[in-house]
Amino acid sequence: MTRHDPKLLDELAARHALGLQSARVRRRVGRLAARDATLSAAIARWEDIAARMSETTPPISPPARVWSAVENRLTPAPAARQKRPGWFDWLRPALGFALVMVLAAGLVQMIGPRQPVPGVEQALPASYVGILADRDGRARLLVSSQRHGRTAHIKWLVPPTLPAGTRAELWALPAEGEPFLLGVLPGEGPATVTLADTSEALLSRVARLGVAFRPADGDTSTPPTEFELIGHCAKLW
Q: Going by C-beta distance under 8 Å and a sequence separation of 6 or more, which residues neighbour residue 164?
């Protein structure tokens, strides 16, 4: 039964907190949580994760053409837009929050429960999290690493199409100083990358992360001049 399986319970709580369940399932889980302190604590934990991601991750701004396309589909008639002035302004934050929730859902499997069921009340381990997007503003890659860990967890939202003879390199882009290599990324699937030091030592002053496609036999001592993917490096604690 889900409530007796730590991993399944944690995923159930995450989907509930992130709004990924149907209305019927959501009501049922809500009733269970009212009677089950462990499930209730797990839901509260994931609600806290979602809230902190929304607060610490800078807004992702899609290209203007994306907003124009959405606005045209929802309000095709100019007259209709005049009758409801300003409605699209408050829709944008709502869509942005929804995007954060969807991306947060990708961390369910990456983070997972760290303790048996009695320990789900504990807070999410302090972590660095990056959401990297392509030049059109589409989220493509999730990167997560515990603050004092030496491993980065990688999850491609859209697997890259690498030209023959090239590889994907993950670079740290400090607010001040030269970019430095964090590791070479696999071309597909969830994976891990071993870091040269702890995330705290490497990323504490890093503002953004970038992915460059470069020759597989190239020199990694020279930073790339351009990046295919780029995103903010957020602190989750």
A: none
Residue 186 CA to its chain's centroid (Å): 18
Q: Let me know: does 227 contact 211? Beta carbons within 8 Å.
A: yes
Helix axes 6-17, 37-56, angle to 10 degrees: 50
pLDDT tens, position by position, 42-65: 888 887 777 766 655 555 555 566
Structure tokens belonging to residue 47:
């609600």
Specify the residue for token string 């870091």: 195
Query: What's the mean per-residue pLDDT of the chain?
Result: 77
- What is residue 44's predicted lDDT score, i.e. its pLDDT? 85
Task: Check residue 165 and report its DSSP letter.
Answer: T
Helix, strand and coil percent figures for the chain, each rounded to 5: 40, 25, 35
| pLDDT grade for 95, boundaries at 50, 70 and 90 | very low
Cα(172)–Cα(202) distance, rounded to whole angstroms?
8
Q: How confident is the model at residue 103 (pLDDT cuts 50, 70, 90)?
A: low
**176 vs 125 pLDDT, higher one:** 176
SS3 100: helix
Q: How many CB atoms lie within 10 A of CB 176?
A: 6
Residue listed under structure tokens 């939202």:
157
3-state class of 182 per DSSP? Answer: strand
Q: What is the CATH number of domain 127-236?
A: 2.60.40
The 10 Å Cβ neighbour count of residue 212 is 22
